[in-house]
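Design request, C-alpha cells follow.
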C-alpha cells in the first residue's frame, strides 16, 4: 500500500516505504559541528582506539625534491582564527591548490606543502532516527561519543598551506591559495613571504651568507655554518665593502 501511494518506478521503492532506509544512507556531519577547539586535545593512543584513517595522506605535492635555489619565492596561507581544521578540508584545499597550479603555472614549477597534521580525534554520539529507535537509543545517558574522524588544531597566525615557486609565478601561487581558502571555515589570509623559499633566511641574508660560503644546501632548506669551528672554513670569506 505504501509503495502504491508513494509511487514506484520499476523496482525502486520510495524512501518512506522502506523502514530500514534511514539506517542505510547517513551523511557526514558538516565541519561547522567541529570547528571550535573546545576542551582538551584527544589524540590517538592506546586508550583511544578505532580511529578512522585521515582523508589526507599526501602532504607534499608538486616538485618536492627540487633544491631551494630553484624556487626562491614563497606564499603562505595563514589562519586568522583559533579553530579546528578537519582532515577532509585539508585534503580538499590540497587538491584545489594543486589543480590550479598545474593548470596555470605548469607541473614542474611549484611545490605545495600542507603544514598542519590532523592528530586530534573528533567524536560522535550516534543515535537512531528510525521507527522503534526509542527501544535502542539511550539519549544523553553515556553520551561520550565514538571516534568519528580527525582534525588539526590551529592557532592565530599559524601557516596552513605553503607554496614555493619561481619569482615570476608568485601571483599564480597567491591565486591558488585564494581558491583553497574556500575549503576552510573561518578567516584565512594569504601572505607573500620575504624569506628565500621555505628557508629561515631573508633573500638578502641568504645571498650574503651564500657569498661567504656559510650556507650548505640541505634539500628544501640550507644549513647555516656558525663562526665556530676551524678557521680554514671562514678565512678569506668575509664580506667585502660592497656587501
Amino acid at each position: 500500500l505504501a509503495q502504491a501511494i508513494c509511487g514506484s518506478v520499476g523496482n525502486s521503492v520510495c524512501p518512506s516505504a522502506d523502514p530500514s532506509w534511514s539506517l542505510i544512507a547517513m551523511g557526514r556531519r558538516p565541519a561547522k559541528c567541529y570547528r571550535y577547539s573546545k576542551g582538551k586535545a584527544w589524540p590517538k593512543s592506546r586508550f583511544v582506539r578505532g580511529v578512522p584513517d585521515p582523508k589526507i595522506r599526501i602532504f607534499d605535492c608538486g616538485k618536492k625534491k627540487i633544491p631551494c635555489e630553484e624556487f626562491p619565492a614563497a606564499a603562505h596561507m595563514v589562519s586568522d582564527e583559533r579553530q579546528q581544521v578537519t582532515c577532509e578540508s585539508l585534503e580538499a584545499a590540497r587538491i584545489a591548490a594543486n589543480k590550479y597550479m598545474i593548470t596555470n603555472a605548469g607541473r614542474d614549477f611549484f611545490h605545495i606543502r600542507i603544514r598542519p597534521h590532523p592528530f586530534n580525534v573528533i567524536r560522535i554520539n550516534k543515535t537512531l532516527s528510525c521507527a522503534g529507535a526509542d527501544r535502542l537509543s539511550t539519549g544523553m545517558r553515556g553520551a561520550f561519543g565514538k571516534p568519528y574522524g580527525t582534525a588539526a588544531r590551529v592557532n592565530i597566525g599559524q601557516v596552513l598551506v605553503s607554496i614555493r615557486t619561481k619569482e615570476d609565478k608568485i601571483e599564480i601561487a597567491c591565486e591558488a591559495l585564494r581558491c583553497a581558502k574556500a575549503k576552510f571555515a573561518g578567516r584565512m589570509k594569504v601572505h607573500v613571504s620575504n624569506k628565500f623559499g621555505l628557508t629561515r633566511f631573508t633573500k638578502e641574508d641568504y645571498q650574503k651568507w651564500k657569498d661567504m660560503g656559510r650556507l650548505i644546501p640541505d634539500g628544501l632548506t640550507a644549513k647555516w655554518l656558525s663562526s665556530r669551528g676551524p678557521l680554514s672554513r671562514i678565512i678569506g670569506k668575509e664580506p667585502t665593502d660592497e656587501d
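Comment from the thread starter after seeing the answer: thanks! The radius of gyration is 26 Å.
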